[in-house]
Amino acid sequence: MKRNLAYVLLLMLVAVASCSFTNKTFENDDKDKLLLDLITYVLEKGHYEPKVLNDEFSVNVFEDFIDVIDPTKRYFVASDIAEFEKYKYQIDDEIKNTDITFFNVVYERLMQRMGDAKEIYKEVLATPFDYSENESISIKYDEEPFADNRDELKERWRKQLKYATLGTYDSKIVHMDNKDVEVTDEHDHAAHTPKEAESESRKSTETTLDEFFDFVNDLERKDWFVQYINTIVDEFDPHTFYFAPEEKEKFDTSMSGKFEGIGARLQKKSEGAKIVEIISGGPVWRDQRLEVGDEIIKVGQNGQEPINIVGMRLDDAIKLIKGAQGTIVDLTVRKVDGSLDVVSLTRDVVELEESYAKSATIIRGQEKFGIINLPKFYVDFNDYSERNAATDVAKEVERLKEEGVEGLILDLRDNGGGSLKTVVEMAGLFIKDGPIVQVQSKDKGKDVYDDKDERIQWDGPLVILVNELSASASEILAAAMQDYKRAIVIGSKQTFGKGTVQNVIPLNNMLRSNEHGDLGAIKITTQKFYRINGGSTQLEGVKSDIVVPDRYSYIDLGERDQSNPLGWDKISPADYKPWDGYINYEKTIANSEKRMQTSQQIKLIEENAKWLKAEQDETEISLNFETYKEEKEKDKEQSEYFKRLTDYDSKLTFKSLGYEEQLFTKDSVLREKRNRWHKNLAKDVYVEEAVNVLEDLKINNIKQGKLASVKN
């Protein structure tokens, strides 16, 4: 079944937004119960693969909610959990009957235990720590049991707080050892003896905890209830999410392309907030010191004592990190390599321009190639005729053709996806016509989205670069070009693996009348997409034709690392004919693999990836200061060793196109951005190998006359 894509998308959005499947009346004087009723109904009727509300579902909600509110197991004791367990197999029945007894019981006990925790940490921090003692702490909290009593709980707090003070103690000892170092931070008081350093560290930690608990005290019951609702929602899949009214407003803002804050997407982890995406043009992107995989563990405001966010709800941590444009946030970060660093960032609005496609020419000897970098598949849903990814890439291709390039690289690394319509149009730039992607909705047949324009804008050699963070729309394009054998895909073993489509439903649209005000919205998974060969990209992603290791090779960053992802499956393939424009396609891949095996830079990248994996797997940490220093020094030496990666020089020359060169005379900031981009590209072994592959493809390419003009 083939349909006009724009028409199908419009019908789908209208149908979902109006909730045409609604045939139920919702009336409840209790806002929480009304919310639960609405959301579970939408999930049952609208989710692509709704879960059965049974005992297994109940157990999952039970365990996940406890983990969400007490991830480091420093509030509840074993007797609390035993008491809660009488609800372990009843939550599914409670949901069906719009009952929230389990939440009420857990919430009331949590408030009590948080009051107890304030007394415990005060007691612990009143006693000096002995850093000469040989003891350690396990930070794999999910494998630790709950404490049996208050004494055990206090011991757990003691170790956690001792661990929290180690870094502060170390920095103050460093000041003592380096008397020539000028202390410029008024909050970082230099200690003159180990005893003073230890005392200052405890005081600093106590101040941080006081601020943390003040922050938690400001939370209302409704804030905790949203966490409970999202625990239920999260059982369906990791991309289905309930937005409370204020969060829905922020989501709308982000969808409009304006991000105010640090420009990073975060994921909840027991040891802090993990950076899972860096938004092009934002403060983190511009600063270059943070990377995907780093974990934020403390947040400070412009030089003030930082607040430890370990164990804090992600929403609350984000509130601390976000802030008005121009203000400064200090982030204490555990880097991917295990080292600790403090990074100060000035909050800003993400520069939208850096999310747009950009291109450059690559010169090697007498040969010239082109590269197009596409950070995301952007579009203005209100006016498609406005700037969008497909038309922008088409313009860049035409400009590169005018420059006389002999091969093209499309860089989709770190591209998290975006508009499906732009993917179909963009794929059409490189093939004559045919299917691009298949989409399947709940309880319906598949729709095949085709490129119907027989013109080809670029029929020369094509390479697509991907990595573990290439997701969704990026995977559709890479998969289509791979299935057609139109391009060679170079990159990580597999891409992110997100093969689902979501839509946002305002809950107020479900009600005929509402006395409770704005109820927020739910983002719900409604479809799955499949490549034209019939396989899903869900979980498995796109497997590169040429696998090149990177520093994330052994770290789980994809859909498979998310909670409750939908599974992989396949449907019947679409009717398509592979591209016949290359001779010895397989030989080109084999030649590249041979080069990769002898590359010293690739070997160093592989070595770095294995070291990073080993560092992340180390969950037992010594609380002995001498051992701590030794391990820190080893990590520093290894980190320095791997800095050689940035010394690489591909000997390739990168140049901006003529139209940009003219802009540089009036825009020095744009010139600096492009110079930085070109400098990084020259150190990029993946781009270098893409050029090698283009050279092979150029030799083997069957020329089919002149290249067609730009598609409209």
Report the β-strand fraction as a percent range: 15-25%
Largest β-sheet summary: 7 strands, mixed
CATH architecture of the largest domain: Alpha-Beta Complex
The helix-and-strand class reads alpha+beta
Give, in spatial order, the strands making up the sheet with the most strands: 20-17-16-13-12-11-22
Number of strands: 22
CATH first level of the largest domain: which class? Alpha Beta
CA-based gyration radius = 27 Å
- Report the mean per-residue pLDDT as an integer: 86
Which overall shape is indicated by the principal axes computed on the Cα atoms? globular
Count of separate structural domains: 3
Q: State the share of residues found in helices, binned by percent.
A: 40-55%
Figure out the total of helices.
21
Report the span from N to C terminus. 26 Å
User: Which superfamily, in CATH terms, is the homologous superfamily of the largest domain?
Assistant: 2-enoyl-CoA Hydratase, Chain A, domain 1
Per CATH, what is the topology of the largest domain?
2-enoyl-CoA Hydratase, Chain A, domain 1
Unreliable residue runs: 1-20, 179-189, 251-259, 703-712
